[in-house]
User: Fold these one by one.
Assistant:
Number 1:
Amino acid sequence: SAGFGGSGSNSQVFNPHSAPAINSPSHVFFDDELPPVEEPFLPPCEPGTYTLVLDLDETLVHYFDLGPDSHFLIRPGCSEFIEELSKYYELVIFTAAMQDYADSVLDQIDKNGCIRYRLYRQHTSPYGHLIAKDLGKIGRDLSKSIIVDNVADNFALQPENGIFIKTWYDDMSDTCLYDLIPLLKGLVESQVKDVRKSLRSYRD
């Protein structure tokens, strides 16, 4: 634990008002019918900015597709994680989900606007028959960019920038987000020149 209290409001259950029929598996097949998106995906940032790219489904939330009773749960520590790390990083959500679903969830879990940008399925790249989240297309310095995802294939194009996090469904005793806070804060506080080298040491 990073010293932030219990799960608190993170144990809430939400039912998006206009949630469409949603399929948000961890592994998503590439959809070549979506229109291409101009690169880089993000506008320029200040030099020296550290960027933290976060997956959504099974990393921050889990959606239960139960027809009229559909809802999503928020992973313990999500609010604290987002709010605390927004002081150190430019936060970007990069999800393989469709935009209408992702926005309906993000509007509820990020009421304070800590997440700077949102990237969706149309921003993903083909990786075999699946998808990858290509950090090289977002327009950020890879030496200062980190992606946290529960599917390692999603950051297969830049594996040294990735932090794998355990898939989450509904375990309200989970502490994975809390546990990552000290590491991620420490990288910025130390002003590391290349996060990839530091993450290599972390994995070892």
Note: The first strand starts at residue 13 and ends at 14.
Number 2:
Amino acid sequence: MTTFADLGLCDELLDAVEDEGYTEPTPVQAQTIPAALDGRDVLGVAQTGTGKTAAFTLPILHHLSAEHIKGWRPIRALILSPTRELAAQIGDRIKVYGGALGLRYKVIFGGVGQRPQVDALRRGVDILVATPGRLL
């Protein structure tokens, strides 16, 4: 049986997944996380509820946590989402998994005022989650 610790994630992420009640990675996580941590491109296809969001956010958070940036932060990771509901869900998972890492993230999508989103980007974020329409 593979554990999250076997995948090579940092201690803060291991604590976060444990706090969420995850005991072992799902098949999509066990197959994609090591490849993503090695810097390889991955394509994960799995049904809803199988942990795809963790499969790509955990490696992103792991990599970004290795280099802390003080002051203004350039966008170091971009996650595109087809819908604002999914973008919000991804943002929630980033908050849950990466809360102890000190990383900044912002979710942007259309249908709401741009000003707060633009202001957040000007202050700097490590991770930007966006729908294509608002990103453009």
Note: The chain has one domain: 4-134.
Number 3:
Amino acid sequence: MKTGFTLAEVLITLGIIGIVAAMTLPTLIQKHQDKSDYTHLKKIYSQLLQATMSIEQEYGSIAEWNLVGDSPEDSKMIMERYKKYFKVIKTCDEDLSACLPDVIYKTTIGTDYVRWSTSSARSSFLLPDGAIVMFNSQGFSDTAFQIYVDLNGWRKPNQLGNDFFYFYYYKDQKAILPGGWYASEADKTANFKAGCLNNYGYYCTNWLLENGNKDYLRCKDLSYSGKTKCK
């Protein structure tokens, strides 16, 4: 009667287990990172929303601030008003290199996008958890300013839609909304494809907050009205 496994059988079994682990572990790690980034981004977004309510009670509707596009002075003023509602360990305005890494951030498809550390029109602050929050005055007819959030600061990958996310203050909505949010489903879908799925990354924020994943980095057949994850 056979009472145990031979060495060959044990080695084969271990080999199969190793292959299965090698195939599934990267997916599990990705899902864990997505969930962690979703939770982190949602927390910062919630803080921004609460801060906005308090700021507008003190200074009036942001939609009426008459901000000037790419104005270093206006960007700094916005940052100064928001920082009171965060635990900030450092602020940067004219010289962003003290807060942001001196690297070229990548788009969702891996191409070079921008070196934020050399921007003179933006102001930022650094949080204790390593996240960076940056402000840019726009003064457009529809948006007052942009907010950028780098979830892990100086650590890689420094990529739009991966660890770097956009928010906008919309004047008509009188609210900060994630990049990629649109009242029209058609506009939301079209801009997700153009500004997240196929390039750039500034319209990925709404997808992550709405669907809880960054699968737009892994497959290209996603849509708000259809497939919302790779598998």
Note: Residues 33-217 form one domain.
